[in-house]
Write a structure and sequence with these properties.
The complex is a heterodimer of chains A (242) and B (256). In chain A, 36% of the residues lie in helices and 26% in strands. The mean pLDDT of chain B is 91. Classes of the chains: A alpha/beta (242), B mainly alpha (256).
Chain lengths: 242, 256
């Protein structure tokens, strides 16, 4: 699970994220929404222990992201905005490397890599170099990387961007199945996607949370689209929800 | 340990799948071969001259000093220029491509990343230098040089190149631009290479300090077949300082 309490990040005078709080429970898929530049990626990077927060705190899988970063890193799977692939490696080599650094035992590596490749539909490009992959395959290899060690918390930054419609459907199914046993934080700006896979929604605008609540509550009276547009047009004021 | 090896293996794969390692090793060997030939023909000339004029009581030309020491010294100069080409990509490229974000959010420590990468460069360098043992081997086959200085000199070259690589890597961890990393490493190594130059005019303690800092001065004993604690300590310190700076740079990158 994820618990964010008053997380802030500023670069000099610029406040990228301001006092963000929300929670994501086990088995929940949380849609993390917001317009471009709202602070989604910054927040996600802080939760993945890539960036240190300037104020506030957060726990991921029960461990503090600042003081217990090592423990957090063992328990998360993280897909950054740009899939972090090594162009000169074959897909299968890359995933074996990931399995090694994520501490999967030597005897299980081969089987686990096979399994993950099947789940993310990349088995057919196993022996292609990462640099020759199309955007959609890169995205899916990135996703395979994120779920390699069966992490408690999965953080995905726009996982379906660049995929074709058929792939989008498959990946959404995959994410949905992940949500059964894991906590998933899914950053996106595709609203129908949220409606389809997420159980909870957090909308951020200008570095602040403007809406937080279960999807069923939020889209009871209005469509998610309306909620989103209204919440991001108002300056930081919180729309009552939940 | 396992993480260090995993990272090292990945780096080696990158070196040998891309043409970098082959070009650097071939280029180095070509240059060394050229200089070996030059020193050897100079030596042959000396021998001829000393045969014509009777050199009784004077030093006869020495194969070790003229050829091997000469070639080893030249190798250090080539290393100053080649090593930055090997090290400039190590960390800068990861930052540029975004794979650094993957490494730093994985359960590997910054120190393991640094050590794994250093180990891979060390392996490439040892391969590269070992290939060039063919030139002293030719001398052993067709002449009678002393073997000990050849080996201790080789040890000196390995230590020196590891020191250079460690510094190059530290520079690479401070930037995400490979060219910048390459240029700064080259300038730093070149400065280090000529650092004893002001020693003559300064004199006194300052001169001793500058001489101590010079890798060329520190190599002198090793090239003559004398392994001293002083020079081993010097090169080990270079390696440790480079690794320490790389580690600090990456930690700082995480916490800013």
């Amino acid at each position: 699970m994820i618990e964010v309490r008053g997380l802030s990040k500023s670069y000099g005078d610029y406040q990228a994220v301001e006092n963000i709080s929300f929670t994501a429970d086990k088995g929940e898929i949380v849609g993390f929404l917001g317009p471009n530049g709202a602070g989604k990626t910054t927040t996600i990077r802080m939760l993945a222990t890539y960036l240190p927060p300037t104020a506030g705190s957060a726990t991921v899988a029960g461990f503090d992201i600042v003081t217990q970063g090592d423990e957090v890193r063992k328990r998360i799977g993280y897909l950054p905005e740009n899939p972090p692939l090594y162009g000169e490696m074959k897909v299968v080599e890359y995933l074996k490397f990931i399995a090694e650094i994520k501490g999967i035992s030597r005897s299980r590596i081969a089987a686990r890599v096979e399994e993950v490749m099947e789940r993310c539909f990349v088995a057919d490009v196993a022996h292609k170099l990462c640099q020759h992959l199309s955007r959609g395959y890169r995205q899916r290899v990135g996703l395979a990387q994120a779920i390699m060690n069966d992490p408690e918390v999965i953080i995905l930054d726009e996982p379906t961007s660049g995929l074709d419609p058929k792939q989008i459907i498959e990946i959404r199914k995959l994410i949905k199945s992940l949500g059964e046993r894991h906590t998933v934080l899914l950053s996106t700006h595709i609203l129908p996607e949220v409606a389809m896979v997420c159980s909870k929604v957090v909308i951020v605008n200008r570095g602040r949370v403007v809406v937080e609540g279960p999807l069923s509550h939020i889209s009871r009276d209005k469509s998610l689209e309306q909620v989103f547009l209204e919440s991001v047009s108002q300056d930081g004021s919180i729309v009552a929800a939940a | 340990m396992r993480n260090i090896w995993a990272i090292c293996k990945r780096e080696l794969l990158a070196f040998f799948v891309s043409p970098i390692a082959y070009f650097v090793i071939t280029g180095f060997t070509l240059l060394v071969g050229f200089f070996f030939f030059n020193h050897l023909s100079y030596f042959a000339q000396l021998v001829e001259m000393s045969a014509m004029i009777s050199l009784r009581g004077r030093d006869l030309p020495n194969l070790n000093q003229t050829v091997i020491e000469g070639v080893y010294h030249t190798m250090v100069v080539i290393l100053v220029f080649l090593i930055p080409l090997l090290t400039m990509r190590t960390i800068a490229e990861e930052k540029k491509k975004g794979t650094f974000e993957l490494l730093i959010t994985s359960p590997v420590s910054v120190f393991q990343i640094v050590l794994g990468k250093f180990l891979s460069i060390a392996i490439v360098l040892v391969i590269m230098l070992s290939v060039n043992l063919i030139f002293p081997a030719l001398l052993i086959k067709y002449g009678n040089p002393e073997v000990l200085p050849i080996l201790s000199g080789f040890l000196g070259l390995v230590l020196c190149s590891l020191g250079f690589a460690s510094i190059g890597m530290a520079v690479s961890s401070f930037t995400e631009n490979q060219v910048v990393a390459g240029v700064i490493s080259m300038v730093t190594l070149l400065l280090l290479y000529v650092i004893q130059a002001p020693a003559e005019s300064l004199g006194g303690t300052a001169a001793d300090v500058f001489r101590y800092l010079s890798p060329v001065e520190q190599l002198q004993d090793l090239l003559r077949g004398i392994i001293t604690l002083k020079s081993i300590t010097y090169f080990t310190s270079l390696i440790v300082i480079g690794l320490f700076l790389s580690q600090r740079a990456l930690e700082a990158y995480r916490w800013r």
